[in-house]
Amino acid sequence: MPVVLVANPKGGVGKSTLATNIAGYFASRGHAVMLGDIDRQRSARLWLGLRTPAAREIRTWEASDDGTVVRPPRGTTHAVIDTPAGLHGSRFKEVVALADKVLVPLQPSIFDIYATREFIDKLLSHRRSDKTRIGVVGMRVDGRTLAAERLREFVGGLGVPVLGELRDTQNYVQLAARGLTLFDIAPGRVQRDLEQWEPIRQWLDA
C-alpha cells in the first residue's frame, strides 16, 4: 500500500490543502483511499466531515489519543497522511518510517524557506531507504515574482525535485469548504489548476 506523507515543520503552508487534493486524486482513479490526520487541529477530519456522500469515498485514518498512527482497515490501497506543524521526535520518525513518498509544501517566503531547510535534511537522513522519494511543491506561488525565483534557487541546491508550483486561487478555498477537491468537479472549471497538478500526478503515480 503506497503511503504519501505531507509534512512541513511550519504552520500555514498548505499541508491540508495538498493532502486533501492528493487523496481526491487517488479517489478519482478508483483507489480505496485513507486520509490520515495526526494534526491536533484535525483539519483533514473536519474536511472529510464536509464531504458530500455523492463524492468518491475517502475514509479517515485516525491516530490514537496519544498520537500514535494506527493501521488502516483492510481493503485500503492508498494512504495519505496530513501532519502537524512542529513535527519532530518519535512521531516524526514514526510517520517517516511509514512513508513511501514525502511531499513538502513550501511557500515562497524567506521565513518558510529557512524553516524548511533543516527539515528536508532530517527527512533525507531519516527516510527508511533511498526508495523513499521526497519532493517539494510550491504553494501559493506567483511564478512572475522575485520570491518565486528565490524558492527555485533554494530547492535547486537541496537534491530534491520541485514537482510543481500551485497558484494562489480561491478554487482551493471554495472547494475545501464543501469537502471537495479539484478532482471532484468538471475539469473545465479548474483547467488551469489541473495543468499545474500534472507533474505532481505523474510523480504520485510513478
From TrEMBL:
Please report the stretch or stretches of sequence annotated as the CobQ/CobB/MinD/ParA nucleotide binding domain.
5-181
Checking Pfam families in the record gives: CbiA
Can you tell which superkingdom this protein's organism belongs to? Bacteria
Q: Which InterPro entries match?
A: CobQ/CobB/MinD/ParA_Nub-bd_dom, DNA_Partitioning_ATPase, P-loop_NTPase
Q: Please name the Gene3D superfamilies in this protein's record.
A: P-loop containing nucleotide triphosphate hydrolases
This protein's name: ParA family protein
In which organism is this protein found? Variovorax defluvii
